[in-house]
Sequence to fold (197 residues):
Amino acid sequence: MMIDPWIESVEFHSSHHDFKKIPQSKTMPQVAFCGRSNAGKSSLINAILSKKDLVHTSSTPGKTRSLNFFLLNKRIFLVDLPGFGYAKASHSVRDNMISAVNGYLNDTDTLRMLFILCDSKRPLPEEELGLVDTCIVKKIQPIIIRTKIDKLNQKERDLVKKETIDLVNMIPEVTVVLASIKNQSGIQNLRDLLKTL
Ligand SMILES: Nc1nc2c(ncn2[C@@H]2O[C@H](COP(=O)(O)OP(=O)(O)O)[C@@H](O)[C@H]2O)c(=O)[nH]1
Ligand SMILES: [Mg+2]
Fold:
């Protein structure tokens, strides 16, 4: 994995079941990672930080139920949010996870960026677009990350690129990054976004 010298230190900080009890430090910005279970949140955090197993990744979807805090350069909190249920989960389970994420978005004054992950193989779901709207209202920078682009063929890739152009035309505040932990696409762009904090 490529090492970016900007990343000086990374440590696990804490894990919370209740978003009302998360660390609140006025001086430390937070960047949160959200998306469906299996979208690639934990893998992406590891890739950005050039760590193999700092964040536990899983082939069993829906396992991370708590908010996990990692401290980057003793200054920035990266937050691995619970997945919004499995794609096959009932609507009520999914709604609960969305409201947990919304609760966190509404309560965290130091949240500066929300990384919204969506598997490139799936069309962009409406709930994720709803989160973009919430970000804009709350002055949080919305970053949509289309994950696992290494799995797409040329035709599928062209479709994702077209979707990206359409989305940015519709919502100019949004940044879209096509990413892969397999071929490292987009990973440096994401680090560069963190450097702006
Ligand atoms: N091919 C490919 N697989 C990926 C990529 N990112 C994650 N995965 C796989 O997708 C599965 C779910 O990843 P994980 O990080 O646990 O997702 P999370 O539930 O959102 O935290 C794991 O088997 C990962 O190895 C990627 O960029 N490319
Ligand atoms: Mg995970």
Notes: The chain has one domain: 10-195.
